[in-house]
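Whiteboard transcription, Tuesday session. T.W. wrote the structure tokens on the left side:
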């Protein structure tokens, strides 16, 4: 068995007052009416990895209303041939905390144990909306390979906000910029390198896979020019761009100006011009490639979250997806409105039913 949650307790989280689940390593098929709280279960599982979870929500937004007491998630995680007791919680809207086997831990330490990848309906518009969403998508993949990527990104964003503040205030003293640009160059180079490595790993996983899902040709591009190849060159580029940046009131050089360009390889058509079904199939392909690459690196597949995965996939591709998930050996958590959506899985999956009551969401096996 690969990476899996075998016990999960959800307390005062979103619509769930209390839910206790006992599981094995098989995929988890969750069905129930819209609004019953299915996605909230997946979001809870996503918080067993670093970051703000699959909805990118604040800790305060995750608490159950109207009590707003805070929330807690706990579980037994089978990973690396061992079993770990994981707890994560937030009180009074404060930043979430993590405990591993009873000891306080950082989110980076959590990320070294638990790798979680996901696909949500909001990502269906990835190829036709703004570059920020595509950068976030690629950074989440990079984070799955390197748990320290999130901290590097936070340091970069903090330094960029401070530099942008100086630019907007029309500060021209070079000494104010030097330290910030050094920090931006160092972390920006690491971010860019991690993204390129992630794309290489995805390409290799796609090339080795036997799959019905389409391959994507992926390229990291800049809105203008190119990111310098070394830390020193990036620092020089930031310094040289100050006058231009002063006029714009923001930093115009760096990995925050990158975009992910995708092409449906078999047709040679840009992803943004593909049909809705083709775009969905490309996303599924990339998530599966991410999972395969992690399985090769770690020796076990990650936990995979597929929210409303049947949307825009025909019956044939749904069946193929289930076959590939099972062949991968991943504990994939999948949601849908009815049991018929998961009929092809048979006893290869365990089933949860989520309904609503006066007390909130109710989960039953």
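and on the right, the sequence the group agreed on:
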């Amino acid at each position: 068995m690969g990476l899996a949650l075998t016990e999960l307790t959800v307390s005062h989280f979103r619509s769930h007052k209390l839910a206790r689940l006992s599981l094995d390593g098989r995929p988890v098929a969750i069905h129930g009416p819209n609004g019953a709280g299915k996605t909230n279960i997946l979001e809870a599982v996503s918080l067993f990895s670093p970051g703000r979870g699959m909805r990118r929500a604040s800790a305060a937004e995750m608490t159950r209303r109207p009590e707003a007491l805070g929330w807690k998630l706990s579980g037994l995680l089978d990973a690396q041939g061992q079993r770990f007791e994981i707890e994560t919680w937030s009180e009074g809207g404060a930043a979430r905390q993590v405990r591993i086997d009873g000891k306080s831990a950082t989110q980076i330490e959590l990320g070294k144990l638990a790798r979680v990848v996901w696909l949500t309906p909001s990502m269906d518009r990835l190829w036709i909306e703004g570059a920020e969403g595509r950068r976030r998508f690629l950074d989440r993949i990079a984070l799955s390979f390197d748990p320290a990527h999130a901290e590097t990104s936070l340091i970069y964003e903090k330094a960029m906000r401070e530099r942008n503040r100086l630019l907007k205030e029309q500060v021209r003293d070079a000494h104010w910029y030097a330290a910030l640009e050094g920090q931006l160059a160092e972390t920006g180079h690491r971010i860019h390198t991690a993204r390129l490595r992630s794309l290489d790993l995805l390409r290799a996983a796609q090339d080795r896979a036997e799959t019905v899902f389409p391959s994507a040709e992926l390229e990291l591009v800049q809105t203008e020019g190119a990111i310098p190849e070394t830390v020193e060159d990036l620092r020089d580029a930031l310094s040289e761009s100050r006058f231009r940046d002063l006029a714009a009131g923001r930093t115009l050089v760096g990995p925050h100006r990158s975009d992910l360009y995708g092409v449906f390889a078999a047709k040679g058509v840009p992803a943004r011009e593909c049909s809705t079904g083709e775009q969905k199939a490309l996303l599924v392909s990339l998530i599966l490639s991410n999972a395969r690459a992690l399985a090769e690196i770690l020796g076990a597949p990650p936990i995979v979250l597929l929210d409303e995965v049947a949307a825009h996939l025909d019956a044939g591709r749904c069946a193929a997806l289930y076959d590939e998930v099972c062949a991968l050996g991943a504990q994939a958590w999948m949601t849908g409105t009815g049991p018929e959506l998961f009929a092809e899985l048979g006893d290869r999956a365990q089933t949860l039913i989520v309904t609503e009551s006066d007390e909130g969401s109710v989960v039953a096996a």
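Someone added at the bottom: Residues 102 and 183 are 35 Å apart (CA to CA).
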